């Protein structure tokens, strides 16, 4: 029999989820946000993690100071793999690799340009064909030698020191661009690591200088590169400061760390499982903590190092796609134009916070800091074909300084294949659909349906919850024009 999960609405934007052990779980969702019972039942697994931590303290596997302090669910929460996507955990004294998962440092990146939306719409099939070549048919031109590959894996953006001339796609990178990338990427786009972990083969590549086959990859699922029109500005002063102008084109990128995050996630999820005391019954939730102090602390430190490597890869991967998209536009239009990074914001990541570790799975930081006194950019995409928003971080303590990373899935990918339509979408995918056999074309359409608007919750209830609660405040709305899907 499926467990009924009791909830209590605190106010117009918050719902408290009842747990047997008193763990504080608060869901940010107004009355219009769809709340499915499967996701609520999955939240019970979070409470069971709390019980596991208590058990491991008594067994001296975790230090006495360890605790799962608080849990927040953001408005885009939906069923995941053990805990909902859209979960924020505040943990003291331990980290849980599975609470981050395999797509480490998956992020949203938004780039502003001064190209008019009308100009962009006038670009026809030539643009589509060129984007397909650049993203899927060997046109990336990402050139690194072994030293440069090691530098970007170990130090992210700081590994692009501009001392050795870059070739290919990154030949346009100069000190001014690197400073912008550093200042407008969360954590400076750089995690300082101690060693190469298991990435020596990738770093060596084919020996010497080579064109990279991994960097510049969108990935599958809900990842994308999307050309959007800035359709509405709500905060004129902030939009002006961030270089966002109505009627212009922006490029939004959603992608992660690909094979790098997969390797790190798989290895350390398995390690944490193997380290669990053999004399204790294994928890049904399958989430295993790594202690930050004591006998096994070195494993947690090694995980944080590997996490940094995957994170650095993810940043450079998105940076590649930014310049791939911009170079394609310059080649097709035959003109130069202004462009700059607005922000790159992670939503699958660990964040150290005064001795605690904030685990964000499908949720983003939403903060005020020294660089952005009034709040850094928060990027909330809609589903493919619906509006996206740029917002300003609110540092709402009740939300653990977090915000959603989208609207949240409504239908499973299997169900979405049968009930949605892609007719109104302009999508560039790996295969040109023109001239394909009917059965192959229909299969491609079904894959796109998995990410079409009807597969996701409506974006406005999530957006309104974020705005009304103070998680973040609205700056601009974007409408999609063309989406590149892996």
From TrEMBL:
It comes from the Bacteria. Transmembrane segments: none annotated. This is tRNA-splicing ligase RtcB. Binds 2 manganese ions per subunit. It comes from Asaia bogorensis NBRC 16594. Its cofactor is Mn(2+). It catalyses: a 3'-end 3'-phospho-ribonucleotide-RNA + a 5'-end dephospho-ribonucleoside-RNA + GTP = a ribonucleotidyl-ribonucleotide-RNA + GMP + diphosphate. Mn(2+) 1 binds at residues 103, 223. Mn(2+) 2 binds at residues 254, 347. Belongs to the RtcB family. Monomer.
């Amino acid at each position: 029999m499926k467990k009924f999960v009791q909830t209590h609405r605190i106010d117009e934007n918050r719902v408290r989820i009842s747990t047997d052990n008193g763990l504080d779980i608060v869901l940010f969702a107004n009355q219009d946000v769809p709340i499915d019972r499967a996701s609520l039942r999955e939240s019970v697994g979070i409470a069971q993690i709390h019980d596991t931590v208590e058990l491991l303290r008594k067994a001296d596997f975790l230090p006495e100071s360890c605790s799962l302090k608080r849990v927040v669910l953001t408005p885009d929460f939906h069923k995941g793999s053990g805990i909902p996507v859209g979960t924020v955990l505040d943990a003291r004294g331990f980290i849980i690799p599975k609470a981050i998962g395999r797509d480490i440092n998956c992020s949203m990146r938004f780039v502003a340009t001064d190209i008019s939306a009308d100009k962009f719409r006038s670009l026809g099939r030539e643009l589509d064909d060129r984007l397909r070549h650049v993203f899927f048919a060997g046109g990336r031109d990402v050139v690194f030698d072994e030293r440069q590959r090691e530098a970007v894996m170990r130090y992210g953006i700081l590994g692009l020191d501009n001392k050795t001339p870059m070739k290919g796609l990154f030949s346009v990178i100069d000190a001014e661009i690197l400073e912008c990338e550093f200042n407008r990427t969360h954590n400076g786009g750089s995690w300082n690591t101690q060693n190469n972990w298991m990435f020596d083969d990738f770093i060596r590549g084919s020996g010497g200088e080579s064109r990279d086959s991994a960097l510049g990859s969108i990935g599958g699922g809900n990842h994308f590169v999307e050309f959007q029109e800035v359709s509405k500005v709500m905060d004129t002063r902030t939009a002006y400061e961030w270089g966002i102008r109505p009627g212009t084109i922006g490029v939004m990128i959603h992608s992660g760390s690909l094979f790098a995050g997969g390797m790190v996630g798989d290895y350390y999820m398995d390690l944490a499982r193997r380290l669990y005391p053999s004399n204790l019954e294994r928890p049904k939730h399958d989430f295993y903590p790594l202690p930050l102090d004591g006998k096994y602390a070195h494993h947690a430190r090694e995980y944080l190092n590997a996490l940094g490597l995957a994170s650095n890869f993810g940043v450079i991967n998105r940076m590649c796609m930014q310049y791939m998209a911009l170079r394609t536009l310059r080649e097709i239009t035959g003109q130069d134009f202004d462009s700059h990074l607005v922000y790159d914001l992670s939503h699958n990541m660990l964040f150290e916070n005064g001795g605690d570790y904030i685990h964000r799975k499908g949720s983003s930081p939403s903060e005020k800091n020294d660089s952005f006194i009034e709040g850094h950019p928060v990027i909330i995409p809609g589903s493919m074909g619906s509006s996206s928003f740029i917002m300003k971080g609110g540092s709402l303590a009740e939300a653990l300084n977090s915000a959603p990373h989208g609207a949240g899935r409504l239908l499973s990918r299997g169900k979405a294949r049968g009930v949605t339509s892609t007719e109104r979408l302009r999508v560039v995918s790996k295969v040109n659909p023109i001239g394909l056999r009917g059965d192959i074309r229909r299969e491609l359409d079904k894959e796109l349906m998995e990410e079409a608007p009807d597969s996701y919750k409506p974006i406005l209830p999530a957006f309104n919850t974020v705005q009304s609660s103070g998680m973040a405040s609205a700056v601009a709305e974007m409408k999609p024009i063309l989406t590149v899907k892996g």
